[in-house]
Amino acid sequence: MEEAVEVRIGKRLVELGQWVATGESCTGGLIAHRITNVAGASAYYRGGVVAYSNEAKVRLLGVREADIARWGAVSETVARQMAEGARARFEADWALGVTGIAGPTGGTSEKPVGLVYMAVAGKDGLFVTRHLFSGTRDEIKEQGASRALALLWERLR
Hints:
Layout (H helix, E strand, L loop, with lengths): L4 H12 L3 E5 L5 H7 L8 E6 L3 H8 L3 H7 L4 H14 L4 E7 L14 E8 L2 E8 L4 H20 L1
Parallel strand pairs: 1-2, 1-3
Antiparallel strand pairs: 3-4, 4-5
Helix pairs in contact: 1-6
């Protein structure tokens, strides 16, 4: 059986002597939960922020209010700033920023339920992706957390 991605991430971060942090919205701390479910995570996980409200995104992760007003909380710009903010706040080598619409309400024709933007910030720059997941609220959150961890793993390899 293949090791869970969060286990591989932990081993790689220890090998590199590096740290990771998280800035989550629609995943509600699920990414942090999966990382910290691995024994020994304190050796590479600095911490995370669940910034569910726009105010929390601004105050805790340094997302610019003007960008939320212009692009919306669910946008590439905000995901990028959430990752950069988590990386800076926790003085980490890597950080994930995730924002989206888990549903079942809150979607629009331009931004449907299941739309999730995620960013990985690292010393080598920033990588942002857009996803459209489907299913129940829990399934969308799970898919978002899994994909974000997979993106981090891709950058760490």
